[in-house]
DNA sequence: CATTTTTAAACAAACGCTTGACTAATCACA
DNA sequence: TGTGATTAGTCAAGCGTTTGTTTAAAAATG
């Protein structure tokens, strides 16, 4: 049996409340009893039962993270950033993965509520109406990570339209005019739709024609990048640049271009998105937009902490800047 | 205020115990009251307080994962595998990262004990004596992941000596005799020392000389692979193959070899370890030993589940097989 | 119809801790 | 020396559940 306050109390000859207060550093005891209590607690190897404590304090010092997929480096790094700050503030992290499925998201919001988490970080899926509604009902302090959300929920993310625009602008500045895009699924607003929007805007603003047939959809994975480029080259082999909505697809693009007997960047330039380590492994190294995943994580946790503590947020929606990484896969023409 | 059993009980006009039993599916109530209880519970949006429940049942349906680093793809994938199975069994996962630091490990074992987790998965560091001792004292069901451990703790891992041997043997079978190694730090027994051992054994068994100056230590990261190869080539530029203890270092090796004006695999063959996605991004693609990270994760969770349920384990130490991935970075000479 | 069995529910204690209210003894000070 | 503060505690309730025991009523049995 685990040792409890009662055990200590009996051994020292005081009541549980006294022991509790002493152990919590409330100065309502004589030097001697304090000393003895600490002594006995140590001897017995007392470890407070946080469950019991939580029941009365109504704080669990635990926050829930609802996230798409841990095996995905992007999310893993976000999670890592979150965990670091959570631990700094003495919060534990319960991680639940959803695969971006609405059903799972709802399930975990409920579960985490039942587990009485002090706060929730939401980094999954498209946040459908059902989730927002449930979140509102459950009244758990929540911060949304890496997702824009119309609600008044606080959030921290990057501006995908703008950053995507920047990547394409960089290609244009290097003299490229026929630029294809490997997109993600547009159902995913953030990394799908918004990046397409940025691409289109950049072309428009520079009087370049947007040709829908040069936008091929992938699934963010390497293989789909290969497939996409094969398709693009079939449609128009005179393109001089490709913008991929993820580094994996960008690397796939490079591989496919080479396989087609063309050279990167001599014949076709490629730029990716994320700054995944994979971008440095390819040959040539893939130019890309570097996302601050870990910062995304820790900023959201810092934010959540403030919300939990009832502090006022100076900004409710934080946009973190990305960085353009110029690398060998892009050349001036 | 959250709605409790009491609220439902009052509204229906029965006692809390009746409501509790009904909601838990214990058939001790009339059809009508049951129906009414369910109805009222739904109307009020009742969600059981798992903290209160845990206090009495002494089960939290939560398991703790102590892991080195979530930002590291290897561990992230292990964690992902764990989470999938945990969720299948309705267990939540509290994840704590340690950076492999003994102090952090001890801190989290204690913390998780206080949080009354039902079980512990340990995938961090070298598991020093202090940890083993604490684990024994706390008496939480524990499974060790990806670490060999002398104790009688159950564990699931790969056989690093054997798999490393296999990689080197593959090079030897391809006619290579002068094989350098980029190792990890030997303090890390599993992926450091053991892989060096496998390398040496393979050489010995094939009557090849082990030359210590051809073993250069890296830190598993890409950059260190580059550095290591530069050093190796300085020491002996007539080597024909390199075995890297990680894919990142392997890719770094390929980059450095190319930079030195040599060709992979024409001049030097390279093989890595892990089958990280990065191995497919490099040119040529990196041959490697594929580790079953996700399986490592889910097997350990399956194992822990059995321990928690008090079932007998048919094997206490599980070794998972790896797979040799033959790719363009190795050629026959 | 009396007695036993079954059913439907109430009662009460317990899980381990925190915390507000109360008490008795000691101390300080005018 | 009497009054008020302070100190060092105790007492008891409560957090939201579960669960063993008891009770009252209904149903079944002989």
UniProtKB/TrEMBL annotation, chains A, B:
Residue intervals of the HTH lacI-type domain: 3-57
GO MF entry, a single one: DNA-binding transcription factor activity
Pfam families per UniProt: LacI, Peripla_BP_1
Gene3D superfamilies found in the cross-reference section: 3.40.50.2300, lambda repressor-like DNA-binding domains (1.10.260.40)
Keywords of this entry: DNA-binding, Transcription, Transcription regulation
Source species, domain of life: Bacteria
Name used for this protein in its record: LacI family transcriptional regulator
């Amino acid at each position: 049996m685990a040792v409890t306050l009662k055990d200590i109390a009996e051994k020292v000859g005081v009541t549980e409340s006294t022991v509790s207060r002493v152990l919590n550093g409330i100065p309502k005891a004589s030097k001697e009893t304090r000393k003895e209590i600490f002594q006995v607690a140590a001897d017995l190897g007392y470890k407070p039962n946080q469950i019991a404590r939580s029941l009365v304090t109504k704080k669990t010092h635990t926050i829930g993270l609802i996230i798409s997929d841990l095996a995905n480096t992007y999310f893993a790094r976000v999670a890592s950033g979150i965990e670091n700050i959570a631990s700094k503030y003495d919060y534990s992290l319960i991680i639940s993965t959803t695969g971006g499925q609405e059903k799972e998201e709802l399930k975990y919001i409920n579960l985490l509520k039942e587990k009485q988490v002090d706060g929730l970080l939401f980094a999954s899926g498209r946040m459908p109406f059902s989730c927002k509604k449930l979140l509102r009902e459950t009244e758990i302090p929540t911060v949304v990570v890496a997702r824009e959300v119309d609600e008044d929920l606080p959030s921290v993310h990057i501006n995908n339209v703008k950053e995507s625009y920047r990547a394409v602008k960089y290609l244009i500045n290097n003299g490229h005019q026929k630029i294809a895009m490997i997109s993600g699924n547009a159902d995913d607003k953030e990394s799908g739709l918004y990046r397409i929007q940025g691409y289109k805007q950049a072309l428009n603003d520079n009087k370049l024609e947007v040709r829908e047939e040069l936008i091929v959809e992938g699934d963010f994975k390497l293989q789909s990048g290969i497939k996409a480029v094969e398709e693009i080259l079939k449609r128009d082999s005179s393109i001089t640049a490709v913008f991929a909505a993820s580094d994996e697809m960008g690397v796939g693009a490079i591989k496919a271009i080479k396989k087609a007997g063309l050279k990167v960047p001599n014949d076709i330039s490629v730029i990716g998105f994320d700054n995944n380590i994979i971008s440095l492994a390819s040959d040539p190294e893939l130019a890309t937009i570097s996302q601050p995943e870990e910062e995304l994580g820790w900023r959201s946790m810092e934010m959540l902490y403030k919300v939990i503590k009832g502090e006022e947020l100076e900004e409710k929606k934080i946009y973190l800047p990305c960085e353009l990484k110029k690398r060998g896969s892009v050349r001036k023409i």
